[in-house]
Amino acid sequence: MLARADETWTIFEAAHLLNRAGFGGSPSQIKTFHALGREKAVDSLVAPIEPLDTFPHPAWCNDEQALAEMRDRMEIRKTVQQAIRTLSPEEAEKTKREAFKMEQKEERERGLEAQGWWFRRMLQTDAPLREKMTLFWHDHFATSIQKVKQPVLMIRQNEMFRQNAFGSFKDLTQAMLMDPAMMIYLDTQNSKKGMPNENFAREVMELFTLGEGNYTEQDIHEAARAFTGYQINRLNGTVIHNKRQWDPTDKTVFGKTGPFTGKDIIDLIFEKKPAARFMAKKLWEFFVYENPSEGALDALTASFQKANFQVGPLLREIFLSKEFYTEASIRSQIKSPIQYLIGLLKQLELTEPPVGFPITAEQQLGQILFLPPNVAGWDWGQAWINTNTLFTRYNLAGFLTKGSDASTPTAMAGEKVKTPGMGPSPKQMGRGWKGPDYEKVAPRRLRENPPDLVDSLIFRFFQSPVPAKARDSFIEYANEKKGAIFTNKETAELCHLILSTPYYQLC
Hints:
By secondary structure, the chain is mainly α. The protein is 55% helix and 3% strand. It has 24 helices and six strands. The protein has helices at residues 11-20, 27-34, 38-46, 63-84, 89-124, 128-140, 145-148, 151-163, 169-177, 180-185, 199-209, 217-226, 262-269, 274-287, 294-306, 311-319, 337-347, 357-365, 387-402, 438-441, 444-447, 450-462, 468-481, 488-499; strands at residues 230-232, 239-241, 251-253, 256-258, 418-419, 423-424. Strands 1-2 form a two-stranded antiparallel ribbon. A two-stranded antiparallel ribbon has the order 3-4. Strands 5-6 form a two-stranded antiparallel ribbon.
């Protein structure tokens, strides 16, 4: 077991935990969280009391409506097929194209609605670690709406991640075998006896459970035959194992032989020691820092195995550990775009983002919900930052702090932004956006004394001291701006200056 942190529990440690195990918070939220004490604060994250159904799904995710619409779509397709029999080839092609465009338009609109729904949930939830883990699983078992195309299946997968956020890694991997979105994404539904598709067999070993070097190519070839016969019922979205399309012959995987099914292969995977170590390391690197020591990794692996691959106990051990609160951990991670955007909105005490802001900002910063770039998920860390994305972060911060009249990227002023596979985002993003309520963010009493105002904003945005040179430059700027009265406009400019620093890109 990892060495535990001592009894001291500073407000800066509380802020660090809230940043890493969630998306940060306002000063008042951090103070409330700190008042719980370290152990109760961790427990509140790992065992949240917020019900899973606090944020209702879009209406089209309702089982009855989704089923009815699926049947209607099938009928429309039949009608189109019947109609084109009497048409000329040109007219038939035009009819099919128009029907396809209507279907695509609905998918695009619902895809955007799904992305907005999840973004707002992350922003407004009282169970931040559950949403952070939902994001983690979405990246780990990466599935893209660009190929899946059916938003209802992406929402259902998202809900499965949420329901299993702290549960068994093994059980969740088993569930992914029969998850419709994953089956479409990795072509499992096309894998049949005599024609096995190796996509899932390869990724479940390489990316999902074991990592390279812990299996052979022959293991993949043999396992692919076990993953045959899994099919989606297009009328209701359920998955069955069709024994007529399954290869029942013996397969030899990891040196063991038998007439294995896909479920059997996953059981065999979790009998291998690297499975526990693989996920323990990935969770540590997601929440703490890269390249943990062998000693720490040994302890985490042993704990994970003892907990029978339950994620909640492992997270609790990490967040109560001494190492989690060391200098090597605190403010050592580059914020992902989602972390950056949600955290900034929380710090500005905005419970609703400006219209069109989430999808536009995600697209510009390179992390679009439900649209990871490939089956390996997003590249993290330094990959998030380059000259263009850093400049865009500064501009997005300017838009949020100063309003839609500020100098911002053209998309913020209403330009159509193309999202791969999703069509254009809303046309008038942020129109009329006035900025946050600065009476809350920077109360008038603080504005009388620029050093006090700056120190308040430093805690709000950094939750830790910044270099003296940076603090002095903020105070100098505030003194220059301060006239007879420090207005909201001047406060917004000060906030934008603070947010346009390299320090703000870390958490």
